[in-house]
Amino acid sequence: MLGEDFSEVALHFDKIQSEEFFREVGALRKLLLLLLALVAVLVFPKYFVVMVTDTAGLGDKSFNDSVWAGIQKAVKDFGIEARVIQSMEMADYVPNLEEAVKSGADLVVAVGFLIRDSVEQVAKKYPNAKFVMIDAVVDQPNVMSMVFREQEIGFVTGVLAALVSKTQKIGWVGGMFIPPVERFEVGYRAGAEFVNVNFGRHVKVLISYVGSFENVPKAKSLALQQFAQGADIVFAGGGKNTLGIFEAAKEYSMRYEKKDGIRRFAIGVDQDQDWLQPGYILTSAMKRVDVAVYSAIKDLVEGKWKGGIHSLGLAGNYLSLSPMKYTRQFVPKETLEIVNKVASMIKDGKLYVPVPLPKTRDELKKFNAPKVEF
Amino acid sequence: MKREFAYSAISVALGLLLGAAFLMLTGKDPLSTYRWMFYGAWGKPSFIAETMTRTTPLIFTGLALMMGFRAGVFNIGAEGQLLMGGITAAVIGIYVHLPFPIHPLLALVTAALVGGALGYIPGVLKVKRGLNEVVVTILMNYVAIYFTNYLVRGPLKSGYLPRTAPIAESAQIPIIFPGTRLHAGFVLAIFLAVILKTVIDKSTWGYELKATGYNPFASLFGGIKTSKMVVLAMTFSGALAAAAGAVEILGLHHRFYGQFSPGYGFDGIMVALIGRNDPIGVIFAAMLLATLRTGAGLVQLRAGVSKEIIWVIQALIILFVSISQIYDMWFRKRGEQF
Fold first, then answer.
1. Within 10 A of A44 (CB to CB), how many other CB atoms are there?
2. Which domain holds residue B59?
3. Quick check: A104 contacting B, CB < 8 Å?
4. Which of A121, B66, B208, B298 has the most CB atoms at less than 10 Å from its CB?
């Protein structure tokens, strides 16, 4: 970028000031130009950010789109320049990342968990380039890995679901057993446990996993099964699966709500998905990758950028519940107050939320929900 | 041959022209787009090396499909054979310990054997039981795709990503151009294409293969064991497709990823058709496809053209190349010599 700016400035200068005087003192002219370019760069630094997507690309209505939206916001706010390279196949990852570096990008943003290995490889090769890796960890000094403490928002969601549930049964239909998804799940279960201890309820959590992120029909049938077993709220744990789970909530409500008066809900994830089935999605546990990438660019612009692992949570609003635009009437005011209090306690570090340990799934057993005065 | 080359050149030009019109419609500068595309693929030694790297699997699968077409059968199962070849190579690369030159060779040969077996089955089913090889190979694709997916998400999983552990260093196909990703698999691909060209054009076996493809009944009448030729063609086709996967894993990715192939097996159909079922033509067709794909990254970055538009242009070029047979009719109808 610096190189390009320089040549542009030099070009203009050449056109305007190509007088005899400068031609005679060539050396001085060069020096002058260099100084001018330096000043131009220092006074008007224009950062260049390149995003490299995974093969899902833009239009995935998920992380890629959300990250790009965050970058667009930074473009507006900081006047940076941004470009996106969408990878067409896996073999594209390394060359695309290298292209981004070579184009003079001040920051290369990589999205998607399969791109992780390529980011590691390219970051090692270009130690002076800066990378942001969203939702995965690359342990290199020049990579800012942004990962989320999903268990925190899972916990808050669990508290809300356990309080709202009329059948005292809530469900979870996860995508695959990968750490971010399991963190959601464990937080969710712990949240329900917290409600049982503090509010004398007996909420049970049903757990199912689809085994893939794209199997919409299977996700739907698993959700229907959980509703049939008496759950009235099902958390949709990720991927395209969510669409099937939302449909299940609507379908089941249509069939049984008139008989037993209980509305069945799904809970969305990652983005504000409430609008997808208005009224049947209680809330969405949002993972704000857009806020994360925006803050990374903000750090860059303010000169505070640092590599390393950044663990993002409720604090800073990197995780939050959706505003519940369509379902406010189903949630009592007191319930919302409790949920907000729990969230602020986690933010302040007054409430510990368990994390699944690698290879074991029983960290939850160690979780003793604390007594809290409400 | 000369005429065919001219047709292909005209097709590429027509595709680019229509693509340019399309680019103008979307408000992009076609000249700078094409310049960046070409530059991104051939502008620097490192770009050329990258283009060659992309060409490699396409040559293999192009040759695989060509083998089938030559004998009059359609091996749509190349994608599945490629995945099975890849996972076989990865398993041998990870769990078998051998010194360098033997290790990758063993992995390659085993992968080719597995792929050969996968091609043999539909071949035999066709000649013995009359089952359509297209249906059988399509179905076998699903088996291979889900089986490899299961393996990388289950028993062979390493870390939390759907991928295997890395293969041993002794199993890697060496890089032939330091500082790039271009590996010896490319040389192997070219070598195989030349060998196949000689065999098909010069040997009795090649003659029998071609005869079977042109007219199986006449060939049978002429004393050629056409059913044997069909089975052989399918077997070799499977072996070549599996080699594509093995070479990608051993040379480029160094571990098996669940989604490493964007459909090279299906691209092979295109490559074989554009290359007019000629081994040397396959090399050039593979290079054409690789050029379009390698250049795409720089086009997005520098010309600001989106991925979807690049796909449209690629499709247009390929469309024109693959329908170029109609030029022949056209020119003949007008009685012109081309």
1. 9
2. 54-276
3. no
4. B66
Alpha carbons A14 and A22: distance in angstroms, whole number: 10
Residues of chain A contacting residue B185, judged by C-beta atoms under 8 Å apart: none
Contact by Cβ (8 Å): B88, B253:
no
Contact A85 B300 (CB under 8 A): yes
Burial class (CB in 10 A: 0-12, 13-18, 19+), A31: exposed
Question: Tell me, what's the ipTM?
Answer: 0.80
Residue B96 class from Cβ within 10 Å (0-12 exposed, 13-18 middle, 19+ buried)? middle
The yes-or-no verdict on residue A247 having pLDDT over 60 is yes
Residue B79, in any domain of the structure = yes
- A48-148+292-299 in CATH: which number? 3.40.50.2300
- B324 part of a folded domain: no
pLDDT digits (tens), chain B, 338 positions: 667 777 777 887 888 899 899 899 988 899 999 999 999 999 989 899 999 999 999 999 999 999 999 999 999 999 999 999 999 999 999 999 999 999 999 999 999 999 999 999 999 999 999 999 999 999 999 999 999 999 998 899 887 778 899 999 999 999 998 989 999 999 999 999 999 999 999 999 999 999 999 999 999 999 999 999 999 999 999 999 999 999 999 999 999 998 899 899 999 998 998 888 899 999 999 999 999 899 988 899 888 888 888 888 878 877 887 776 666 666 665 554 44
Give the C-alpha distances (Å, rounded to integers) separating B110 from A146, B175, B242: 41, 22, 9
Q: Which CATH superfamily is domain A151-286+332-366 in?
A: Response regulator (3.40.50.2300)
A103 in contact with B, Cβ within 8 Å: yes
> How far is the alpha carbon of B185 from chain A, nearest alpha carbon, in Å?
15
Interface contact A49, partner B, CB < 8 A: no
User: Is B13 part of any domain?
Assistant: no
Residue type, A316: G
The CB-side HSE value for A24 (13 A sphere, CA atoms) comes to 3
Whether residue A91 and residue B252 make contact (CB cut-off 8 A), yes or no, is yes
How is residue B270 written in tokens? Answer: 């295109």
Contact B301 A85 (CB under 8 A): yes
Residue B292 lies in a domain: no
Our count of domains for chain B comes to 1
Q: Chain B: which residues have CB within 8 Å of chain A?
A: 40, 50, 53-54, 153, 160-163, 181, 248, 252-253, 257, 259-262, 293-294, 296-298, 300-302, 304, 306-307, 311
Long-range Cβ pairs for the range B196-205 (8 Å, 24+): B196/B63, B196/B66, B196/B67, B196/B279, B197/B278, B197/B279, B197/B280, B200/B70, B200/B279
> What residues are paired with A147 via a beta bridge?
A311
